[in-house]
Every structure is written in C-alpha cells, then in structure tokens.
Specification:
Elements (H helix, E strand, L loop, with lengths): L4 H12 L3 H8 L3 H9 L7 H10 L4 H6 L2 H14 L2 H18 L5
Helix pairs in contact: 1-6, 2-4
C-alpha cells in the first residue's frame, strides 16, 4: 500500500511518539516545513528532505512510503536508541543465536 509522504510521516510520528522538532533536528530539515506537512498545508516535501526524514526513522524512502513495516521499524529504531550498549549486545547475541538455531547450527 503506497501512502503519501504526509501519511507516512504522521504514522511514523505516532509510532515513535517523537516530536516534529526532534525529527527536524535529527534530519537537518526545517521544522516549519514538517509542521506544514503535518497540518496538511503541504502534502509532500523535496526528495532530499524526504530521504533524510525516512533515515531518521531507520528506513529507506521506499519503505517509508509503501510498506507498513516501516512503522514497525521506526518503533524498533526508537527502542534501540533507548537501550544501553550492554542491552544492545545482549539482544544482538540472542538474535544471532536464534538465527544459528534456525539454520540448524549450534549457537
């Protein structure tokens, strides 16, 4: 399902709970431009800024616009940023061990 950039942006904001100012600062784009987009005074943005915004949410622009998993990935990226390095290491080790088990190898 392809969405407008505005729809994708609003969905990603809801999924992460991030503010427009936070996204703008991390992406290096105009907060005012993103506010206009969110309020419906604009439906899209330029490609360079769209790429930057999608990247902040941890997805490609294609994923951001056309794939519902983009919301999930944005949420995962937000949760990942909240973890300590030790917690990240534990999760990575567990995921790698699970992947090895799925392939029939010993972790």
């Amino acid at each position: 399902m392809t969405r407008t950039f505005r729809e994708a942006f609003q969905d990603a904001l809801k999924a992460t709970g991030w503010s427009i100012n936070k996204v703008a600062a991390e992406a290096g784009v105009s907060a005012e431009q993103l506010k206009k987009l969110n309020q419906g005074r604009s439906q899209s943005t330029n490609v360079d800024d769209a790429l930057k915004v999608a990247h902040v949410f941890g997805v490609t622009l294609d994923e951001f616009l056309g794939d519902d998993t983009a919301q999930l990935r944005a949420e995962v990226a937000d949760l990942w940023r909240q973890l300590s390095q030790e917690e990240r290491d534990i999760l990575l080790a567990a995921a790698r061990g699970r992947g090895a088990q799925d392939r029939g190898a010993k972790p």
